[in-house]
Amino acid sequence: MKTFKTIALIAAFLTVHHSISSQNIAANLQDFIGLNDSIVAITNITLIDGTGSPLKRNQDIVFTNNNIRSIGNTGEISIPANATLIDGTDKTLIPGFIMMHEHLFYAKPTENRYKAVHMPFTFPRMYLAGGVTTMRTAGSIEANTDLNVKMLIQEGKMIGPKIDVSTPHIEHEGFIPQLQSLYGNENIEDWLNYWFKKGVTSVKVYNHISKEELKEIIRVSHKNKIKVTGHLCSITYREAAELGIDNLEHSFLAATDFVKNKPENECVLDYSSLLKLDDNDPKLMELMKSLIDREVTLTYTPTVFEPFTNREVIPGGGIKSLAPSLKKHLQGIYDNQINTKADSTSLVQFKKEMTRIRKFHALGGKLTVGTDPTGSGKTIAGYANQRAFELLIETGFALEEAVKIASSNGADYLGISEDTGTIEVGKKVDLVLINGDLSKDISSIRKMELVFKDGVGYDSPKIFSSVEGKVGLY
After folding, report:
1. Which residues of 254-292 are buried (b: 16+ CB within 10 A; e: fewer)?
2. Can 2-96+423-466 and 97-414 be said to share one CATH topology?
3. Could you report the per-residue pLDDT of 321-358, keeping only the tens digit for each?
4. How confident is the model at residue 87 (pLDDT cuts 50, 70, 90)?
């Protein structure tokens, strides 16, 4: 058996021996691979399997290529003589993250206007380095680019997660020029079928559409066995649920159900309606029950809404990845926001939403998590995903439940739970090896050593290092 205790030793080993995996990964990307052996055993690991079950200590796991072969108490399962061994002492193994509100673009400031700039090279790498093995683009600015990135990753010409690509945001009007996608009396079915034929596998609706349009979008999408999610405004959550929507973005923070005298089919932004909403308001409880009864999933995106005061400039600590001009700009935003009344109000809203999310989940609501790398530009791929996990704990979820929300729940929604989302015998090798005990220090989530996707172990620190100073450029 070959035994390795650190990534450094694994890397040294790979300079003289590199077995052929089921994936053909381009030569210029080989340096990002930390382990690519056909038979691997991790011993004496602390295992959180993603099912919600209690963590298990002193576990051994064996996988062959892209298949988990056996799991058991240390010393009680057979380990092949030719297996590469990783000593898991003081380390944690979790399923790869399945994040449900991600983008391949960055919110780059341009003359005080919002501009989404595609990051097709840096962001896929960063997502993978941050533990994301599968992601959904909940709305695309350049859907063709996203489809091409997905294909290039599948072909081994780029590194990144497996991607569920969404349509462009279905929208009539708005303050972001790139989002307008429906014009006049354009035929919705033709529009959707155009993207479905290209390979899009999810639908995203946005702020300014009508109930009749949403009804048609859901009809056509479901006919093609494709789910619909929405960041809504003109349509309330209750109305969307009654029409058959599958998913709602930003948990309750985008709901206009509590805006007084809201006209039908009109977007009225009134965040005070949620700020004033009592946690036990009967109307809130009725809405939660309606969503649960209709099996509508909520995507929780705490990272993009995180306040500034006493928190990081870049959630997850990734400020070094920004281009120098953006680093200066984001620091300026941070300095202007901390200790302000607006940020204090934001914190109140942030905490109230945590209470709503806990209540929704406790009642049996379906919940997934994502980051939405937009907003002021402080939310960026990879780092934000690790921070989202920490924020699940801050929300009040137990460690095992947080892992389940960040992995298994997304797999269930995407219909891929037979293959991934949990650590179980027979499933694919989508795993994250963490240098530390998450049960003792949740910030260990930032110490990912290897991110296994489809059986290949990628070197997380090395990938993050490769993008330093480049986010915002490409």
Report:
1. bbbbbbeebeeeebeeeeebbeebeeeeeebeebbeebb
2. no
3. 999 999 999 999 999 999 999 999 999 999 999 999 99
4. very high
Distance CA 90, CA 235 (A): 49
In a 10 Å sphere around its CB, with 0-12 CB exposed, 13-18 middle and 19+ buried, how is residue 175 labelled? Answer: exposed
Task: Give, in order, the Cα–Cα distances in Å from 148 to each of 10, 121, 157, 358.
Answer: 32, 12, 11, 38
Q: What is the largest CA-CA distance in the chain?
A: 71
Amino acid at 194: Y
Closest by CA position to 235, among listed 260, 209, 273? 209
CB 118 within 8 A of CB 154: no
Cβ atoms within 10 Å of 96's Cβ, excluding its own: 28
Contact 138, 299 (CB under 8 A): yes
In CATH, the number for domain 2-96+423-466 is 2.30.40.10
Per DSSP, the three-state class of 431 is strand
Sign of the dihedral defined by the CA atoms of residues 262, 264, 266, 271, in that order: positive
Tell me which residue of 209, 206, 389, 431 sits closest to 300, measured CA to CA: 389
447 and 460 Cβ atoms separated by less than 8 Å: no
Domain ranges of the chain: 2-96+423-466, 97-414
Indicate the helix (H) or strand (E) that contains 228.
strand 227-230
Q: What is the pLDDT of residues 374-416, one digit of tens each?
A: 988 999 999 999 999 999 999 999 999 999 999 999 999 999 9
- Kindly report, residue by residue over 221-233, the tens digit of the pLDDT: 999 999 999 999 9
Rounded distance, CA 421 to CA 407, Å?
A: 5
Kindly calculate the radius of gyration of the chain based on its CA atoms and give it in whole angstroms.
22
* Across 150-162, average pLDDT: 97
What string of DSSP letters covers 250-268? TTTTT--TTSTTPPTT---
Residues comprising the chain, all counted: 474
pTM of the model: 0.94
Q: Which stretches of 26-169 are assigned E, i.e. beta strand?
A: 33-35, 39-47, 56-64, 67-73, 84-87, 92-95, 97-102, 105-110, 113-118, 132-137, 162-165
Ordered alpha helix ranges (H), 323-425: 324-337, 341-362, 383-395, 399-406, 408-414
* Domain 97-414 class, CATH top level: alpha beta
pLDDT band at 21 (very low <50, low <70, confident <90, very high): very low
Contact 194, 231 (CB under 8 A): no
Instruction: Give percent above pLDDT 90 in the chain.
Output: 87
Q: Are 96 and 431 in contact (CB under 8 A)?
A: yes
SS3 459: strand
